[in-house]
Fold this protein.
Amino acid sequence: MVDTTISPVSKPAVPLRNHLSRREIFDRYRRTTGATERTHWQIIYLKNQGKTINDIINITGYNEEWVRNIVLRYNREGPDKFIKDESLPSEIKAEYLRKSNELNTARQAQQEMLAARIPSHPELEIDAFLKTATEVSGDYYDFSLCQEGKLTLAVGDATGHGTTAGMMVAATKALFKVLASESNLRNIVRRMSETLKSLNLRNTYMHLTLARYEKGRLRLIVAGMPPVLVYRAATETIEDIVLKGMPLGSFTEFPYEEFTVLLQPGDTVLFMSDGLLELLSPCGDMLQLDRIKRIFAEAGNRSPSEVIVHLRKAGLAWRAERALNDDVTLLVLKRRLSQRTENPAATATESETS
């Protein structure tokens, strides 16, 4: 029989008053910078997520009395007055600074490792953009270009956030570098999924779009990613290519479908992570696919870099410049109106990652 009585030394539970919505609390937490503000909002954010005082202590390592007092002060004084700089114990401030430095180092190392050079291709214009919501990115894109002009690219989104997602991204990049030259796209996806599953990264998976371009033909395999959008220059219309597939690392024998798109000169292709689809307005509405298709159509006849700028501006306006709640990745390629004669692998430029 389980004893459910409260012992004399047990302290009563502390509910969180509804001063702000869950979204408003998340935004406040994401916008914080200094140690004092960050740690205070971290506690309120965790409490708002349904965590108990003991849960918060176990997650953060903070002192119980200090955590309890912050929640009580938030309840009593509200979100604009509960933060007190003098209330932050020196050991907590030191621990916060240590963790912040480690996360910044990890972020810098990951960005250097993942920085994919945009290849120069005689038949294609290409550009890409990645914006992280947290210190370590769970999004990813990469290219592999051979001398004959065959371009293989990947756009990925690991489940979750933080260090585990970052580990999944690093593993995916390494696998792509080794396997991208294989001729069979299904074999690439299968071998990547087998290896990622063997890593046992605590229910973390990689959603991935794998594509290969060669002489006007774009072959696609999609593993749990958003639709690929194609702007047709001749009709100024958008086609969405929806392919179903489980994320990599979940099932090793999933029968992924391969689809081929014929690209005419002037046609433009948009690859994206779900961070763009799920951008939230101040009212809590998602940007969603239909709006993105309309926004893409407005700029589909422009260069890839201009398409990305147009999408970014629209996304920023939609979320009213509030903090991101997920990473956002955009990759755009456009078939040139006339082919260039340069060596396809000769030059490259750095992609934008901020």
In short: Residues 22-88 form one domain. The first helix runs from residue 22 to 31. The longest strand covers residues 206-214. The radius of gyration is 23 Å.
